[in-house]
Amino acid sequence: MMDLEQLRALALHGEPCAIIDRTALHHNLKLARNTASHSKILAVIKANAYGHGIVPVAQALSDADAFGVARLKEALALRDAGIMHPIVLLEGVYSHHDLELCARLQLQPVVHSFEQLQALEQWSSGEKLAVWCKVDTGMNRLGFSGSAFATAWSRLKTLPQVKQLVAMTHLADADDRHDLRTPNQVTRFKQLTDSLSVERSVSNSAGLLTSQALHMQWVRPGLMLYGMSPFADADASALGLRPVMTLLAPLIAIRHLEVGDEVGYGGTWRAQRKSCVGIVAGGYADGYPRHAKSGTPVGVAGRYVPLIGRVSMDMIAIDLTDVVHAEHQPKIQVGDPVVLWGDSLPVEQVAMHAGTIPYELVCAISQRVAIKYL
Ligand SMILES: Cc1ncc(COP(=O)(O)O)c(C=O)c1O
Q1: CATH no. for residue 44?
Q2: Pair 12, 120 in one domain
Q3: Residue 265 is among the residues annotated as catalytic for this protein
Q4: By the 8 A CB rule, do 289 and 333 touch?
Q5: pLDDT tens-digit profile of 287-332?
Q6: Mean pLDDT of 101-119
Q7: Which residues pair with 18 in a beta bridge?
Q8: Closest C-alpha to ligand 1, atom 13
Q9: Which residue among 74, 171, 204 has the greatest number of ligand 1 atoms within 8 angstroms of its CB, and so is best to mutate?
Q10: Are residues 115 and 157 in the same domain?
Q11: How would you class 356 by CB atoms within 10 Å of its CB: exposed for 0-12, middle for 13-18, buried for 19 or more?
Q12: pLDDT tens sequence across 77-87
């Protein structure tokens, strides 16, 4: 954990801030590369690179073979910033206008439905696209299943608008390494695609970290690149991953309470002893989860202290009593930064206390939080 002096040097000026560690991004990409050493890497940077900033993250991950985004707008932002990697549109496109854009910007749409296939068939600009055809192997979200896949594939194969095809599927439960759904999905995928002799892609982070058998020609990691574990039973550090985002917020008040005093909306926390309470300028409008319970850990001066009471829009309260009375502890003062998650406080732990997943927390960092890149 960063010590208080290091944190103070980051000078928050009264506002929360997300620190993005680009060396950790490099490290995590390298780990993905070494783990799936025979595969190409499509780094998933949709949703503003899971809240980390799509353009700076793409620049930091320039060693990836391609990028994956959900929406056209995200791809446009990358091309506007001069990112020239292949970009796969994971939800694909539906109109001729968007197919034109794909051709002009060299984007590779996923085709997962007959509506998209028909739009592609009727598009006659003379341009050619690389296309990823999505197979539904049991998740029942997007993709062609069973005989529909065979039909879609044979139509795509003969289209002059298609210059290259990749077959892909998505795993519904790879984050549980013992779940039989994953081997069943892979078997289904292989049955449908073994005879096609094309490049194939199955794995998200969980698949990539589970087994070489799931790697194929392309892996598609997202979460692990940002240093988070996809597994409930293995933390990120045990997997060799380094957290990329540290969310900091400044202490803006220190209060001394008597036994019985209550804190925050609804007075849901009551002091059982004389207490020292810190008020931190970071709340649900910044992306800190409103459902985080009393007891959720927060990092202060190299120690963990508990969140107390309800999370407000702009603030949380923390119990500093044990820290201010501890020996050899630097004096805590207004203006000091506290760690909401990241450095030595895995976002996975905060997510668990809030009854959610780390994906949701990092993606929900709001626009008013400044992002600083180290
Ligand atoms: C199609 C597809 N592939 C890969 C990923 C990356 O998944 P993860 O972040 O779990 O690695 C996602 C993310 O949701 C996805 O939708």
Answers
A1: 3.20.20.10
A2: no
A3: yes
A4: no
A5: 999 999 999 999 998 899 999 999 999 999 999 999 888 777 778 9
A6: 97
A7: 247, 371
A8: 222
A9: 204
A10: yes
A11: middle
A12: 999 999 999 99
Kindly indicate the confidence band of residue 124, based on its pLDDT and cuts at 50, 70 and 90: confident
Residues 6+ apart with CB under 8 A from 113: 92, 142, 144
313 CA from centroid of ligand 1 (Å): 30
Do 347 and 253 have their domain in common?
Answer: yes
Return d(Cα 304, Cα 322) in angstroms, integer. 10
- pLDDT for the residue numbered 317: 98
Query: pLDDT tens across 167-218, in order?
Result: 999 999 999 998 889 999 999 999 999 999 899 999 999 999 999 999 999 9
Number of domains present in the structure of the chain: 2
Point out the catalytic residue in the list 128, 163, 265, 274. 265
Residue 310 domain-assigned?
Answer: yes
| Secondary structure of residue 373 in the 3-state scheme | strand
CA atoms within 13 A on the CB side of 320: 25
In this prediction, residue 5 carries a pLDDT of 67
- Residue 121's nearest CA partner among 95, 150, 159, 166 is 159
CA distance 99 to 364: 30
Q: Which mutation among 74, 135, 170 tests ligand 1's pocket best, with the greatest number of atoms within 8 A of CB?
A: 170
